[in-house]
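User: Teach me something about this protein's shape.
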Amino acid sequence: MNFVDELKWRGMVHSMIPGTEELLSGGKMVTAYLGIDPTADSLHIGHLCGVMMLRHFQRAGHKPLALVGGATGMIGDPSGKSQERNLLNEVTLRHNQEAIKAQLARFLDFDSDAPNRAELVNNYDWMKEFSFLDFAREVGKHITVNYMMAKDSVKRRLNGEARDGLSFTEFTYQLLQGYDFLHLYRHKGCRLQMGGSDQWGNITTGTELIRRTDGGEAYALTCPLITKADGGKFGKTESGNVWLDAARTSPYKFYQFWLNVSDADAEKYLKIFTFLTQDEIAALADEHAGDPGRRPMQKRLAEEVTVMVHGRDAYNAALDASQILFSNNAGEQLRRLDEQTLLDIFEGVPTFEIDAARLEAGIPVLDMLAVETGVFSSKGEARKMIQGNGLSINKDKYTDPNGTITSQHLLNGRYILVQRGKKNYFLIIAR
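Assistant: First, the predicted structure itself:
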């Protein structure tokens, strides 16, 4: 496939240095790199557009390099930031690097014998022995302060976006990133750097450094920063980032994020975050237009991305979990849920605590619901609801007003889910 054409119809091209398209369509394998921030031991969905670029690049027959910014991660990139990042130590960086590589391996081929197999590199490996004097001689003398000051990322910080201004450390960031490009140009034959549009200034510093030091030609390609139709920040929820690590964001919550994107965003995200073809996406858009209530675009988007990141089994489990709220007699499904998914599904419902030891002997259901907790205001109200077939315990109908609740009812050894009527849920936690 033609890499640039593929990105263009997907809406994934923001800017290119002239000559980039010709380089990539010349019939020869090209090596390109994209930098990844290693300040956490997981990628989040804000990284996904760049990762998808690398995967398209490899699918087009070219060689991708994923650069973990161990050295630059110790400083912090001023692009789009209002304050400096926390500095990381080497042990943390190495841990984060290995975790990130394991996630990237779901997208990129690192292990085959193909000439375009992906590589993971860390700029800390070539920067850690680079003295300040050597850096000033070999890099600093080639790029003027005037050139650096003209970058938008620097001008914005100096013009009031940052309360404390811009430190020298961050000011030199573009030189460090520029040197990464020069190093990979010299040692890996890398002629292209890719990234988000906010990285344009840093990337072009690298192409300029290659031109001034080695007389070489290097190129740049950036993708747009992903936005939401309502102007909100993509990838952020009330609880923070949507992570690719299942321990940070459960597959259920991950699936729900994509399932709940707006109609205005769904088609755009299908192009950027899946490998569906133009015809497949157009057919989904037509189906959606015919019956928007069924949300076929969101369902397919959630399926494709969840399977890609977490696998088919995790997707199936997330799909089952998402149906529990709308299913009657779903006790068996509920009992299969892990603790985190259970808490994710019923996040925000009223909770009550009860002494776990008291459940060993059993507690009369009316006492449990109207005395020990506040699910009902009185035993009479609870009895009436049970007799009217309106109470479920753990998604199974509970029909005996003289019954008892015991430790046998606990989910994951700790929880009892009470459903009053159709929509009112309560979680009882045994401590």
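Now, about its shape. DSSP finds 21 helices and 15 strands in the chain. The CA atoms of residues 297 and 373 lie 42 Å apart. If you'd like, I can walk through any region in more detail.
User: That's plenty for now, thanks!
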